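Recap for those who missed Tuesday's class. We walked through two folding examples back to back. For each one, the amino acid string is listed first and its predicted structure tokens come directly after. Nothing is annotated here on purpose, so try labeling regions yourself before you check the end of the notes.
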Amino acid sequence: MTVLDFFFYAFIVVVIIQVIFYLIFFRKVAFLKPNNQNEKNIPVSIIICAKNEAENLKTFLPSIISQYYKNFEIVLINDASKDNTLEVMENFSDKHQNIKIVDVKNIEAFWGNKKYALTLGIKASKYNHLLFTDADCKPVSNKWISEMTSHFNDKKSIVLGYGAYSKVKNSLLNKLIRFETLFTAIQYFSFSKIGMPYMGVGRNLAYTKKEFFDANGFINHIQVRSGDDDLFINQIANAKNTTISITKDSFTESVPKKSFKSWVKQKRRHISTAKHYKKKHKFLLALLYSSNLLFWVLSVVLLISTHNWIYVLSLFIFRLSIQFIIIGFSSKKLNETDLLIWIPFLEIFLILAQLTIFINNLISKPNFWK
């Protein structure tokens, strides 16, 4: 057997793995019918942790305050900000009785740790149902609280939502950010639907205070600066207690990074948490990434060498077709259809970016949340 023969058979295996991911896992979102729940009007605490977010709070907090919902409070956590974040919070609090402020001072044991600040905010909240978002996020509709909390019931105590990024015209970085966000959402929604929830995003996430305290909060990974959302959900979520919300009124939208450097810094923090996931999740995510990488590498090598090129090209087109169908239907549900024609390029770019970030994280560990 020649080296090219080995590459060819490896390519077949890689395509099979990719097709299994798309047709068994990711189709769960692509062909899922959004399940509109009846409004429950349960009391809910909105938790927003802010560090140097004065301007964003001025811009986006009104969209939370104006939500069409009967009974909710907003817990604003000032995480040792150096700007006038606290002053902005106090101005809003003076005008709205349902706003509570938690002013967090750095202490040596938890210096710069968002999880410490969030814990104080959660303890200060008065309702059992908690809904999380960020200071630079806005709900896309005034029914956000209603849509997210409608999925709570006697069995479901965790609700995973979609946190989109706003669109910027003629920006390659913006397309890359949104594609990565879309593909990540397809993954964590799909894994949840097959009974293996592994993460959520703090831009749009809900769970009960009981879940938080039953797990002793973030104590199991308090030493990890990031992961207040994905690591915590990875710890407590299971097939019985977790559900998803993909109705468009339940989405939030955030301000995307404006430079590649700042996006890489953010992704370094996110990727560094993955090594703390449960073993089964790490295995599946590593298998997905490595099969993505090998698909493109082996495709290029085999097509350039013209080794069994007809079979290689056929498998290449088959896999791309499956991908376009699954991501196409999913992007329609998540309002990201303008990304479709860019999928091959964005996927290659993302694979290379993630590989670079992974290598950088091996060299130096990111120790920041903001």
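Example two. Treat it independently of the first, because the proteins are unrelated.
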Amino acid sequence: MEKEKDYIRDIAEIRSMMERSSKFLSLSGWAGVMAGIYAIIGVYIAHKLFHFNPGETAYTSTTPGSWPDNFTNVFSLALSVLILAIGTAIFFSYNKANKRNEKLWNPTSRRLLVNMAIPLVTGGVLTFILISKALLDLIAPFTLLFYGLALYNAGKFTYGEVRVLGLIEIGLGLIGAYFTGTGLLCWAIGFGVLHIIYGIYIHYKYEQ
């Protein structure tokens, strides 16, 4: 009986070692929560303080090569939210990796970043094309689409829940693209609410 328990414990340890070597498990749930909070605050500021509503400006008051005066402020705000979210993710992931006596930058994390980078860079280039054409109502849904594709790719190298989140983001992006004018709301749900829910779930499932 005692030997059987030892075998089970050994198998569990081997499985854990294999999982650590093939999966990036230093993603922090709190990073997701904070990213969601940043996104919701950003949407609130863009809508309430900068009076930004892409559904009202698209195809009407803007022409290719031009955009509303408040768009520069909104773009700067979005960039600030992105920098804050990335910085927070690195900070929490670094601390989690240290607690697990692992290196944050390793072959698995490199593979994860490469698989995320292709759709993210493509989406970023497309975003600048949309800005140049003043197709502002498509920016939010398209960023959701390509972010969702990046998450789906990343799911092969980290928690399986990341793939589920990616599919939901893709769905929200498609909804926002079809129902023009709802992009900002979909963006708030996708980058805000879903990140908070995902972060809390990951924290209580894997970090407690």
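Answers for example two:
The chain has one domain: 28-206.
The two ends are 30 Å apart (CA to CA).
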